Write a sequence for this structure.
């Protein structure tokens, strides 16, 4: 398909502060060994937007955080770019509609991150169940005689509600199966065939909020999920409920969350993501002892890094070989004239 090497722009997200690569070595070597692929790190920082120059000089972009705006594709700016391979599951910082119009595929690595993200959700549940932060603080303060005053909450028999039943949400239920919890699930587009054996009771959103002891957000950020959890949502929750958000900060209305926590209308929150990132140093959540906080990386592990890096490298290698990468989020783009030569294109 390509008459010359596939030029791939690589985000600086895959460089450590000392300049060494954080990308899995085996996956990187497989990319470098491909005779049809040429790799070059982007000039801009990992959090800075993709530029018009990038889409003009590269056939593919291997990114994580770099935003992709619609303005990049005005005029002839998207003439060379054909693939954005995103290392991760979310793509709310990429204008997928604009990519589709310009004939640019967008791939993600949903399967590669599901287990690690689900594990981080369960870690937060266990931390709240066993009151680990409170017990840690008590021990460090020398309050040994008060250790029996802090009682945990067993998970057996409690109710776990998961909002969003994609790869991550279903993996949460798989991992939690041994705990003997009741499983409630909400999604606007249910697919019961995928839930076989997971003992999931599908409910409406309000019912899930009312009945759940632990509420895990596993949905993508879209126009319909922005502030999905708002003041009215917290009004439905039990005073013993714990909200866990490892998805996207904008799914939760933070001012409503703060009010619910301060007024003890919910028991706690596990928060790995924020409406504005990075959060400011005096963020009100930081002063609350009923919150466990992360920095949008609780799932980051050797397993996640290896699996996601291999998956995103495979997407690049597949396209370089003239094939359609796995996990394309805009499959309708394959009808674009840019991909007439690809096998299985419409």
């Amino acid at each position: 398909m390509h008459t010359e090497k596939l030029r791939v722009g690589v985000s600086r997200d895959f460089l450590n502060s000392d300049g060494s690569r954080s990308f899995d070595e085996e996956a990187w070597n497989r990319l470098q060994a491909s005779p049809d692929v040429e790799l070059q790190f982007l000039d801009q920082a990992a959090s800075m937007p993709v530029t018009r120059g990038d889409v003009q000089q590269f056939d593919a972009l291997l990114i994580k955080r770099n935003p992709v705006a619609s303005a990049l594709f005005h005029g002839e700016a998207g003439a060379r770019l054909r693939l954005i391979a995103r290392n991760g599951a979310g793509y709310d910082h990429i204008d997928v509609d604009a990519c589709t119009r310009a004939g640019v595929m967008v791939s993600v690595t949903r399967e590669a991150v599901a287990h690690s993200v689900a594990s981080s959700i369960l870690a937060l549940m266990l931390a709240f169940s066993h009151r680990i932060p409170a017990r840690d603080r008590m021990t460090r303060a020398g309050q040994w005689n008060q250790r029996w005053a802090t009682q945990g909450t067993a998970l057996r028999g409690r109710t776990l509600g998961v909002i969003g039943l994609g790869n991550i949400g279903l993996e949460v239920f798989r991992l939690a199966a041994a705990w003997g919890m009741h499983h409630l699930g909400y999604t606007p587009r249910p697919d019961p065939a995928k839930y076989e054996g997971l003992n999931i009771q599908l409910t409406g959103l309000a019912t899930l909020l009312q009945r759940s002891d632990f509420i895990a957000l596993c949905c993508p950020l879209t126009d319909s999920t922005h502030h999905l959890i708002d003041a009215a949502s917290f009004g439905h929750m039990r005073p013993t409920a714990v909200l866990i958000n490892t998805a996207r900060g904008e799914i939760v209305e933070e001012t409503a969350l703060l009010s619910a926590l301060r007024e003890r209308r919910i028991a706690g929150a596990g928060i790995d993501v924020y409406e504005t990132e990075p959060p400011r140093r005096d963020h009100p959540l930081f002063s609350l002892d009923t919150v466990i906080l992360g920095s949008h990386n609780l799932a980051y592990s050797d397993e996640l890094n290896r699996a996601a890096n291999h998956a995103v490298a495979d997407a690049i290698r597949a396209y370089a070989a003239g094939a359609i990468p796995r996990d394309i989020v805009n499959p309708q783009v394959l009808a674009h004239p840019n991909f007439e030569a690809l096998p299985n294109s419409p």
Summary: The radius of gyration is 22 Å. The first strand starts at residue 6 and ends at 10. The chain has a mean pLDDT of 94.
